[in-house]
């Protein structure tokens, strides 16, 4: 195949021609929306770029790539030059092919019509363009969250491939939520039913879920989610930055984003869970809750799973994906683990 490749900085570059159609045709999850990537990039220390590969003017692949710096400061990346077409960056950087808000899913998407050999060629073409744009300071490329098939496609001589973690997945073999409950242990089933009754009878608790929520304050949602992430502690290899209120203002209003919220009777936000709706894989995404010492409530975490399974059954999607740890808790809710892999590509073999 004859391909063209370009690296787009969403902070200053317009949306690539054909990207929206590619996103719609292959039913990419909401986080691949170019405007959302733009809003994320403006407040990121390691800003994402989008690599788009085209054949005869038709988009055949996209890669979400975080340009990462080894130092911890400053908090934000330096401002881009208007339409600079990626001037070379001073100092060492590495590139992570990673969709940071899609836990357990890769940061590269292909036209399903591409066979494995073509996919490998496209990935190496994108690597070469990334190296050209970032210059001599590029240390290498790291592919995160690959499934076994994709890891085999981007692997090769001089590249290091490792199974790095697993993602929790619940296959939708249910005709009703009761089918799911029947698979759980007697003690877990009893506790979920008891918790549900307690929360349903709480007169001072307002629970609301739905898509395209226009009743929520994006800044309030961002504060709770970013606080929750900070309190859990940032993993040493986590290169993500906090998301902004502006990001959530757009994100929560999408028809393919389902948001579950818990408020007390005074209007205080107690917990929030976002789900990425999809005909194949519904993703249980952001979760955050106030601690009990500050007015939070017990059992909301498990209640959110019961509601997610009810949504899954109504939706008829093939699976519910719930990210990574804590696996032992998710196993008790019927989830199984699917391995995910990482592939590290040192600079000497980038594009080869």
Q: What does this molecule look like?
A:
The structure is a single chain. The chain is of the alpha+beta class and 352 residues long. Helix content is 31%, strand content 28%. The protein contains ten helices and 13 strands. Strands 1, 2, 3, 4, 5, 6, 7, 8, 9, 10, 11, 12 and 13 form a 13-stranded mixed β-sheet that branches. β2 (48-55) and β3 (58-68) form a beta hairpin. α6 (186-200) crosses α9 (300-315). The longest helix has 19 residues, at 116-134. The chain is globular. This is BioF2-like acetyltransferase domain-containing protein. Pfam families: Acetyltransf_6. InterPro entries: Acyl_CoA_acyltransferase (IPR016181), BioF2-like_GNAT_dom (IPR038740). Residues 186-330 form the BioF2-like acetyltransferase domain.
**Count of separate DSSP helical elements:** 10
Series of H and E elements: EHHEEEEHEHEHHEHHEEEHEHE
Query: Helix amount, in percent?
Result: 25-40%
* Top CATH class of the largest domain: Alpha Beta
The named CATH superfamily of the largest domain: Gcn5-related N-acetyltransferase (GNAT)
Strand tally: 13
Shape: globular
Organism: Amycolatopsis marina
Protein name: BioF2-like acetyltransferase domain-containing protein
Pfam family, one: Acetyltransf_6
Domain BioF2-like acetyltransferase: 186-330
Quick take:
The protein is 31% helix and 28% strand.
Question: Topology of this structure?
Answer:
Layout: E1 4-8, H1 19-25, H2 34-42, E2 48-55, E3 58-68, E4 93-97, E5 108-110, H3 116-134, E6 138-146, H4 148-154, E7 160-171, H5 177-183, H6 186-200, E8 205-211, H7 218-232, H8 245-251, E9 257-264, E10 269-276, E11 281-289, H9 300-315, E12 319-321, H10 327-332, E13 336-346
Parallel strand pairs: 4-6, 11-12
Antiparallel strand pairs: 1-2, 2-3, 3-4, 3-5, 6-13, 7-12, 7-13, 8-9, 9-10, 10-11
Helix pairs in contact: 6-9, 7-8
């Amino acid at each position: 195949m004859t391909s063209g490749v370009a690296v787009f900085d969403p902070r200053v570059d317009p949306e690539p021609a054909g990207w929206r159609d590619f996103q719609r045709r292959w039913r990419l999850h909401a986080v691949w929306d170019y405007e959302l990537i733009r809003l994320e990039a403006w407040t990121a220390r390691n800003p994402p770029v989008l690599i788009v590969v085209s054949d005869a003017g038709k988009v055949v692949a996209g890669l979400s790539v975080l340009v990462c710096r080894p130092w911890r400061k400053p908090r934000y990346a330096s401002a881009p030059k208007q339409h600079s077409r990626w001037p070379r960056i001073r100092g060492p950087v590495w590139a992570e092919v990673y969709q940071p808000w899609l836990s357990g899913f890769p940061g590269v998407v292909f036209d399903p019509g591409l066979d494995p050999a073509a996919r490998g060629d496209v990935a190496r073409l994108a690597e070469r363009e990334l190296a050209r744009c970032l210059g001599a300071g590029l240390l290498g490329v790291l592919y995160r969250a690959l499934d076994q098939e994709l890891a085999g496609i981007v692997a090769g001589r001089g590249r290091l491939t490792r199974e790095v973690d697993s993602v929790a997945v619940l296959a939708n073999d249910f005709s009703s939520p009761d089918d799911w409950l029947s698979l759980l242990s007697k003690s877990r089933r009893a506790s979920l039913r008891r918790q549900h009754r307690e929360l349903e009878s709480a007169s001072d608790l307002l629970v609301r879920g739905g898509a395209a929520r226009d009743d929520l304050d994006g800044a309030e949602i961002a504060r709770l989610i970013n606080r929750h992430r900070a309190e859990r502690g940032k993993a040493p290899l986590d290169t993500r930055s906090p998301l902004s209120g502006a990001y959530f203002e757009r994100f929560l209003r999408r028809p393919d984003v389902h948001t579950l919220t818990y408020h007390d009777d005074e209007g205080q936000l107690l917990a929030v869970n976002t789900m990425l709706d999809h005909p194949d894989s519904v993703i249980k995404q952001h979760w955050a809750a106030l601690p009990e010492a500050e007015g939070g409530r017990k059992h909301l975490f498990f209640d959110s799973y019961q509601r997610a399974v009810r949504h899954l059954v109504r939706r008829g999607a093939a699976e519910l994906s719930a990210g990574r740890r804590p696996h032992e808790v998710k196993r008790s809710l019927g989830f199984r683990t699917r391995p995910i892999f990482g592939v590290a590509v040192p600079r000497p073999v980038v594009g080869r």
